[in-house]
Amino acid sequence: MKAGHPVRMRVLGTGVGVAVLAALTPAGATADEPAGTAAGDVVTIGHRGAAGLAPENTLAGIAAGAAAGPDFVEIDVQLSADGVPVLLHDATPARTTDVETVFPDRASAPVGAFTYAELQQLDAGSWFGPDFAGQRMPTFSQTLDALPDGVGVLIELKEPANSPGVVDVVVDELAADPRWAALADAGQLMTISFDHGALRQFHDLRPDIPVMALGAIPADDAALTELAGWADALGTNYRSLDPADIARVQDTGMLIGVYTVNGPVQTRELLDLGIDTITSDYPGMLVNVVAGKPPVPDANGIVVSQINANVPGDDIQPENGEHVVLTNTGSRPVNVGGYVIQDAAINRLVIGRGYLLHPGAELRVYTAAGTNTKDRYYNDLGRAVLNNGGDTVAVFTRKGTLVDLTAN
Q1: Which residues have CB under 8 Å from 382's CB, separation 6+?
Q2: 188, 45, 67, 76: which is closest to 139 by C-alpha?
């Protein structure tokens, strides 16, 4: 896919809204001086489907992600013990399934220790919420069953060293199902990985499908140029991104992408910097911000005004531990009893009954124990949940409607 001259991968919107990846020099740019990315050209990607709204790497999650209208949904592929490619992010099924109940003696075993038949006995949805009970771990090609027309797939080769042969298996699957071929022909497939050796192996086998190398941006120009010799894009954590590196990457002919961006403010900043691809757990927010629309259309005035993840002393000290501050910025009182505050790891704080937040009023919602008052509510989880290095906080009504989304 890589051209032998310094051009960049860009996104072309077709008449039916399909995102097509093509190698070209943007309008207004020269081969020696590529232009920055216009907001409308940004590739939008739903992380693990829509990891903030539905159980990740399930058909329900993929459907939820696709329904938000991004260009791509991202999935993670690993192999079962009998060589079946399945969707799972972690090295083990422990976090996102009921493996501890079904196979208590193997609760911490890697996914590659289970046959596909055994993995199908696991519930991959209940951990996220009762509405998703019974979701199973899909196979790679079952992804297509939940994918509507117009949405592409970003395939992550997850820890290939733990799934020997996964590259060959994925390549075989892509050749076996004509639906994959149709996506490839439309420019709606890309493969990504932190394992650059495995990713280059994939590139050599399927040079028609763009590849994105994940990880830190090489500080050495020679290493960056070597990477650009075969990779179409480089994806990195937006929190560690040096804006000066954006032009360095783009000047090699590669796209530059960032993950996992869940805050509207950060999304707008990255668009202004000229980022080419953005991945989010909340693809609807991402699509709305790119389109210049309100990030959360159902906002009702309740916003996260502070995320106090790293308080002085112990994060779970009684009365004064880590907490989130909600503020009513609207013009009418809102009953926030039963509202849910969710972080990036799907930890949840639930507000108790009887909390009517008047215009301008604040409510502090704590992780740890304490004495509830009119402006403080304590969950007493017994553990810290907010990430001191930066976190995402989403607020849902008691009926599950998203009303605010922010990151620090």
Answers
A1: 316, 368, 369
A2: 76
